[in-house]
Amino acid sequence: MEIINWKELLYPYEQTVAELLIKFKSIQKECKNLGVYCPIESVSARVKKAASIMDKAGRKQISPDRIEDEIEDIAGIRIMCQFVEDIYKVIDMIRIRNGKDMHIVEERDYIKNKKPSGYQSYHIIIRYPLSTALGYREVFAEIQIRTLAMNFWATVEHSLRYKYSGNIPDSIQKRLTNCAEAAFRLDQEMSTIREEITNAQRLNEIKQNLVNNILENIQNLFFVAKLDDMNKINREFIDLWSANDVEKLKEFNERLNIMAELYRI
């Protein structure tokens, strides 16, 4: 078999996942800064190890000189979503970029057309344009988009498949299939209570931002206000924080803002 310079082969894929991570994480950051809902819960990436690539090439009878042309998932991006509906919002985001900073080659919907094993996820194969020290090139990358429940199942299934060398016993496979159905029902149920969940998350984020502003005000006032006043302020803040009353925390923060202005902080 032809000797492969794995460092040279894999470096463009490492650069690809690094750049794609920045792009998708910047979407998260932009949504947060604008105060709008983001369908992306988290993003992770990996580049296949040489041994894994060789194993796949062997199974699919791919010659070494065809690895980069025929193995599409050497570079992998995984996007996690809270709800199934969010998956399709992320897909739309990627489609908008098609022909600009990435080129969609193929889409595989394993959510509406789940695999017999129970596996569910949405895969998008792209060609990513890359500027390297050796010049311009395009490399394959696979973007997987799934919910947290889908990912939990897929992670367990992958571990078992590795343990049994791809031949999972029928009894365990049946239980895995039942678990996949349970994960699907969980996603459905989460979607039905989505509004309650997102409202609770939004309220929690508002509270966190308020608390951060209050603590910053208290820290600044500590150096200029009277000690007795600061003890009173601290006690009031702890009481309001413990009561979990966002409206009263807002009023409290407004009072601190006025105090800070009086002291010209």
What can you tell me about this protein's structure?
This protein is α+β, with helices and mostly antiparallel strands and 265 residues long. 60% of the residues lie in helices and 17% in strands. It has 9 helices and 5 strands; from the N terminus they run H-E-H-H-E-H-E-E-E-H-H-H-H-H. Strands 1-2-5-4-3 form a 5-stranded mixed sheet. Helix 7 packs antiparallel against helix 8 (227-243). The chain is elongated and about 80 Å long. 19% of the residues are buried. The mean pLDDT is 90.
Main attributes of the structure:
265 residues; alpha+beta; 5-stranded mixed beta sheet; 9 helices; 5 strands
Q: How much of the sequence is in beta strands?
A: 15-25%
How do the helices and strands follow one another from N- to C-terminus?
HEHHEHEEEHHHHH
Q: Share of helix among residues?
A: 55-70%
> What Rg is obtained from the alpha carbons, in whole angstroms?
25 Å
Estimated structural class: alpha+beta
Overall mean confidence score, pLDDT: 90
- Give the N-terminus to C-terminus distance in angstroms: 71 Å
Number of strands: 5
Helical segment tally? Answer: 9
Low-confidence parts = none
Largest sheet: 5 strands, mixed
Biggest β-sheet: strands ordered side by side in the sheet: 1-2-5-4-3
Shape: elongated
